[in-house]
Design a protein that fits this description.
This protein is an alpha+beta fold. The protein is 30% helix and 25% strand. It is built from nine helices and nine strands.
Length: 237
């Protein structure tokens, strides 16, 4: 990746995080030790940055060069084992990390689950949350209590494949509700989600359990509460 491409990707990364209200230009410039006008000129492509300034920004954003690299380019350059060339390894992370972090360090990954690349490519995104810089697919594990709310009988746990580029309430399949991981009352929950006025309604899979309501913050969209759509479930029995 050329230095100019790196700077373009860094601009897009910063703009996306500002759009999601994760940071402000003023706060970032202070944290990186840059003048606000200097950062503004960079974001508007009126000037580039020195290597020292780039390093300051990367440190302030808590990201590395690989976080800005194109995934397809990395995949082309990475050595592959012939027997697994049709598979892609998806990181297993905690539900809380899946909700907050765009990408993950090796220390935050608790393993991987392999899926066929053809299956992942067929999955359609519907991102209304400006998450183009987020790692799209992650896996999260649910314990017995969390699984019981979805599948009342039998399973002792489950691993969910979550598409974090699907933050819309539009049904993926006509007449079939989407299963989501969402942030609700300071925690992460799994269920079927609808919008009722200024409230999100979370329905568990078990009809005997109560629904949960969360009032939307006026400054936020319902999509800000979405972690992503669940597109595959592996049950443990």
């Amino acid at each position: 990746m050329r230095l100019l491409d790196l700077q373009d990707r860094l601009r897009a990364h910063i703009r996306a995080r500002i759009d999601r209200r994760e940071l402000t230009g003023l706060g970032l410039s202070r944290q990186a030790g840059l003048q606000q006008g200097h950062l503004s000129n960079f974001l508007n492509a009126r000037r580039g940055l020195s290597l020292e300034s780039l390093n300051r920004l990367l440190d302030a954003l808590d990201i590395g060069l690989l976080d800005l690299a194109d995934e397809e380019e990395l995949e082309r350059r990475a050595p592959r084992a012939p027997a697994r060339s049709g598979l892609e390894s998806i990181a297993v992370v905690s539900v809380e990390q899946a909700a907050r972090l765009a990408r993950f360090t090796p220390q935050q990954v608790g393993g991987t689950v392999s899926f066929r690349k053809a299956f992942l490519r067929r999955l359609r995104p519907h991102d209304v949350c400006h998450r183009g810089d987020w790692l799209r697919f992650v896996c999260v594990k649910l314990d017995r209590d969390a699984v019981r709310g979805l599948f009342p009988r039998g399973p002792t746990g489950a691993t969910l494949l979550v598409d974090r580029h699907y933050t819309s309430l539009v049904p993926y399949r006509r007449h079939h509700p989407n299963l989501y991981v969402i942030r609700l009352h300071g925690r992460c929950a799994v269920g079927y989600v609808t919008l009722a006025g200024d409230h999100l309604v979370l329905r568990p899979g078990d009809p005997e359990l109560p629904v949960e309501l969360a009032q939307l913050n006026r400054a936020r969209s319902y999509s800000d509460y979405m972690v992503g759509r669940v597109c595959h479930v592996a049950l443990e029995v």
